[in-house]
Amino acid sequence: MSDPGFIHLRVRSAFSLSEGAIKIDKLAALAAKNAMPAVAITDRNNLFGALEFAQYTSKAGVQPIIGCDLAIRREEEGGFGSGGRALPSDGLLLLAQSEQGYRNLMHLVSLAWLSSPTGEAAQIHFSDLQGYTDGLIAISGGPGTALGRLAAEQQADAMAVLADKLAKLFPGRFYIEIQRHGMDVERRAEPLLRGLAYKTGLPLLATNDAHFADRGMFEAHDILLCIAEGAHVSDPNRRRLSPEHYFKSADEMRKLFTDLPEAVDNTVTVAKRCAFMPQNVKPILPTYTKLQGRSEKAALADLARQGMEKLIAGKRVDQSIEVQKYHERLD
User: Fold this and answer.
1) Strand order in 63-74's β-sheet?
2) What is the pLDDT along the chain (331 residues), one digit of tens a residue?
3) How far apart are CA 7 and CA 249, in angstroms?
4) 87 contacts 74 by C-beta, under 8 angstroms
């Protein structure tokens, strides 16, 4: 991979429903247009766009990096996994380095949806990461993450504890994230995040939380967030992003982080560490063992007709409709 100066590692596509506004084909085109040899997709709690993303980026000559912004259940004290009253979740950005990492990521995303109670947002417990971190790079420090939240709250001791946990779960694969979208929460958090990185030797990583393609899309995206939350534009308590949450060029990011060039350089390092691309595979379907000399199509038709007769005999159909109509519809 040539050195492009910066690689986007935190991008929400349109598959982050009612949150991201970058379509998959547009994302691939944006990376190619900006001469970025790689780009990541990191939708919230899903991998819906992974295969389509990989297909579009490969056609554009861009390396796909498959990731996910995974929701981790937050507790009342000390961030992840501390017990206490449940609070809104924190995000943890995970990128797949290899097929093993992708399989672990699929497991964690599936667990988030299958284990969360009905009506509750999909999320996992911090302890669920144990045993499923191989092949994954972890990134934390932005406003939506536990480390970023603790930094903004000036909880240096809790930050150190959490960073140590993540560094042990992801040995040599954990990065402290810095974001600069001009938001107060980022300005409050950055000094503590930088101090923690220098103290522990953990690498810094510059990201731009891209939700839309260019600055001109900010207003339309802001309306999208209002629709998603059922909120009014004038509501002072609703979620807001800034016009800076767009797909910045490498030059823009290097100027933004001119005092932290190593944080920008590390985006290229991370991209080089990721070497996985999902492939099309044929579905594995069970073999039907009761064909009795029939084709699969004929056997399916017979079963459907038998099922229809049972419904009619049990009077589980609309009696005002002629039976013949049901057979015609089935055919």
Assistant:
1) 38-44, 63-74, 87-96, 136-140, 174-179, 204-207
2) 567 899 999 999 988 877 888 999 999 999 999 999 999 999 999 999 999 999 999 999 999 999 999 999 986 544 454 444 457 899 999 999 999 999 999 999 999 999 988 888 899 999 999 999 999 999 999 999 999 999 999 999 999 999 999 999 999 999 999 999 999 999 999 999 999 999 999 999 999 999 988 888 878 777 777 777 777 887 777 777 788 999 999 999 999 999 999 999 999 999 999 999 998 888 888 888 889 899 999 999 999 999 999 999 988 888 888 888 998 999 9
3) 9
4) yes
Rounded to the nearest angstrom, the gap between the alpha carbon of residue 327 and the centroid of all alpha carbons in its chain is 46
From 264, 271, 262, 261, select the one nearest 249 (Cα to Cα). Answer: 264
Rg (Cα) of the chain, in Å, rounded?
Answer: 24
pTM: 0.82
Burial-class residue 224 by CB neighbours within 10 Å (0-12, 13-18, 19+). Answer: middle
Within 8 A by CB and 6+ apart from 39, the residues are 7, 8, 11, 27, 28, 30, 31, 57, 62, 63, 64, 65
